[in-house]
Amino acid sequence: MKIAIIGTGFGALAAAFDLSKTKGRQIELIDERSVAGGLAAGFKKENWDWPLEEHYHHSFTTDKALQQFLLELDLRDQLFYKKAKSSTLYNGQIYQIDSASSLLKFKEISFFSRLRTGIVLAFLKILPNGTFLEKIKASRFLPLTMGQESWRIIWEPLFVSKFGHFSDEINLSWFWARVNPRTPALGYFEGGFQRLANLTVKKLKNLGVKVSLATKVEKITKKGNKFTLSLVNKNGRRIDKQYDLVISTLVSPDFAKLIDLPELKQEKLRGLAAMTMVLSLKKQLLKEGTYWLNVNEKDWPFVAVVEHDNYISNAHYGGESIVYLGRYLEISDKAYHKTAQELLVDYRPYLKKIDPNFDQNVIDVKVFKSAFAQPITFVNQSHFLPKFETSVKNLYWVSMQHVYPFDRGINHAIASGRELARYIEKHLKMENL
Ligand SMILES: Cc1cc2nc3c(=O)[nH]c(=O)nc-3n(C[C@H](O)[C@H](O)[C@H](O)COP(=O)(O)OP(=O)(O)OC[C@H]3O[C@@H](n4cnc5c(N)ncnc54)[C@H](O)[C@@H]3O)c2cc1C
Questions:
Q1: Percent of the chain whose pLDDT exceeds 70
Q2: Is 56 a domain residue?
Q3: For position 386, what pLDDT does the model report?
């Protein structure tokens, strides 16, 4: 049986790993990019020892699917955890807010608001399953329970930064799923997640899986029981290949470019783009030890500052201080189409508020964009979730839009990729294939 898996993100890699355990299958992973790893892919400068993710990445101690996958790949000992400080920039000041005690010290809201906020967070933390909360909008529940002040100063800016004009629509189970599994220690893979993707690809090749990078799938067609994938490689060479079963790990707008399926038109499968600036600096931007800084200031052009070397030593990056500046936006936004240099001009006045000497410290700047990177979780989103099985027999689908109510991430991509593999195995067994 010939199986094509479109994509080499962690969902695709995990599905390929499990499906390759049955002998006699020819499995091919196909990705338009020249590196594996999808949204978690990285890049490396010549003077660096480790590649770096294009978009900031870390995991949590509660990421069981990632831990189990690494165990099976014999790589578990290379996942390490370290505490990392999270803070919030508000009214020109940086406040550490990453624990009950630091929240209690946040004097920008009244003590009563802090207490209410702490009680709500504690409730969400101990609630084992908060999926039922999807019936309620977070933008209604949180101001009512934590108080208007807490909502307006701490939480509303975070919802706006993550979901833009959809921020009022987000359901409360998403917030539960953000709060519940969070741990103070964050996980990282030795050499970064690009290295993990490369090691996984190596393992898959040893298991007989073919990995075709720099190969774009342009079309999926089906005649009888056979699928034809129209492929084009980086030199523009076109080739049609046949398969018995196809798995797409693409988000709905990308999948819809390959085949016309009614389920890809579901209007609740919305998402925002991510745009991440990566700065290499001579000196740190955040000098007080913060790894993750939420920008809760009005009208700043970026919403998160991630000082990577307050988490991972800059010795791996030739002594350069790495800073990510993140934001989510619509692709129709003018900013999404700007170059790194143009964006730096926009960002500079704000960066100088954090460090007046910022200009003297810049080594270089890059910007990475991904057109669909953050699914929107509307009220009762579970009713609109896509299924593994599509309306075309033997064409399966798994993507970050299947991950719910948890926020998309490597751990959940692995969990859903493996769940799909089990689902397919069951179907193939029933059909004696
Ligand atoms: C800003 C940002 C920060 C993040 N931070 C974290 C974090 O801290 N921790 C965490 O765990 N996760 C994080 N994530 C999320 C994480 O990267 C993703 O959830 C995960 O990598 C998704 O994996 P996937 O396999 O579902 O899909 P993807 O990684 O999106 O893979 C899809 C693949 O399909 C390929 N493709 C698309 N179209 C075609 C085509 N026509 N032909 C061939 N190939 C095609 C793409 O090139 C891509 O490689 C972050 C994401 C972003 C954007």
A1: 100
A2: no
A3: 96
